[in-house]
Specification:
Layout (H helix, E strand, L loop, with lengths): L1 H10 L1 H5 L15 H16 L1 H8 L7 H22 L3 H6 L4 H23 L2 H8 L2 H12 L6 H17 L12 H24 L7 H23 L8 H28 L2 H8 L1 H14 L5 H36 L1
Helix pairs in contact: 3-13, 3-15, 4-13, 5-7, 5-12, 5-13, 7-8, 7-11, 7-12, 8-11, 8-15, 9-11, 9-14, 10-14, 10-16, 12-13, 14-16, 15-16
Length: 338
Amino acid sequence: MALTVGAPLRVQPVPSLVTPSSTPPPSRPSPNRRLGIAAIVISATAMGAAGLFGRMATPPGAALGEALTLGRMLVGALGMMLLIVFSRRLGAIRRTRLSPSIVLGGVFLGLSLATYLSSTLLTDLSRAVVLHYLGPLIATVLARVLLKESITRLDALSLVTAFAGMLLAAGLIGGAPPAGSDHETLGTVLGVASGLFYGLALLCYRYRSDMPADVRSFWNFTFGAVATAAMVVVTRPDMTGMTATNWAWAAGFFVVCGLLALGLLVIAGKHLRAAELSGLSYLEVVVALILGALAFGESISLLATLGAGMIIAAMTLPLATGRRRRRKIPAAQVGSAA
């Protein structure tokens, strides 16, 4: 009798503790808005310096946008690989399942940055930046249509205010009309193309938020390098005129505007909604405006100052929306738990 009674006692409690219904399903990590905001502010500041680094790294009369962007992508990929190796997370790359959004995100980003940098060499820096930042508007609209992301009134007001401020800061409203040279026309076309590619890249970042940021950044740089390498093969830029000073600026461009700026951009895309990401990323325009005045002696008019103020004011609107959302979350969680 002792054996027949004791046997069930060792077996019965175990299934009751490990039944499939008691195992919680794996949950996707919740967004960290503070981390996302810090990442996009630093990223936009570093991205705003791209025009300065690109111009200083390019010899007079040369067009090296594709080549410099290729170096930017390669250094970024190498840097992310070293970080992953040193943190002993190399297995995370092998376990990652690639998807079209991962591949296209890198390709679109590489094409966007290459055409943007070429645009800054052919037209005014402020105009190239404004055309490049058509991207966040495109990403917000596409996220609303494809991902059903909500656009609140504050989000819409933020985007409209920031874009109007950009037009003022770039001198496209109330400023001198652009020259009608072939270089200006080509620069404008490349600027529009960079904005379109940038918007598609930002949209791709909204997919696969389950992927670790360092792994996503590595693949982002890798496929961006593949896209820009194809452009280099087609354009065959002449780099024989680069001096030691040009190479030093190029190295800074690779690290600051590549590894730092684009790595943080991926982190921001994981933790912020498209409207928030778009509004905060307009800080790059203000940074480019200030650097243009300090480095190249470009004048800042009263309208440009007003436009920069509008951009900064627009950046605070998505933050107000986020604070309202956070106040509502605890009540919702309580109701679902009950």
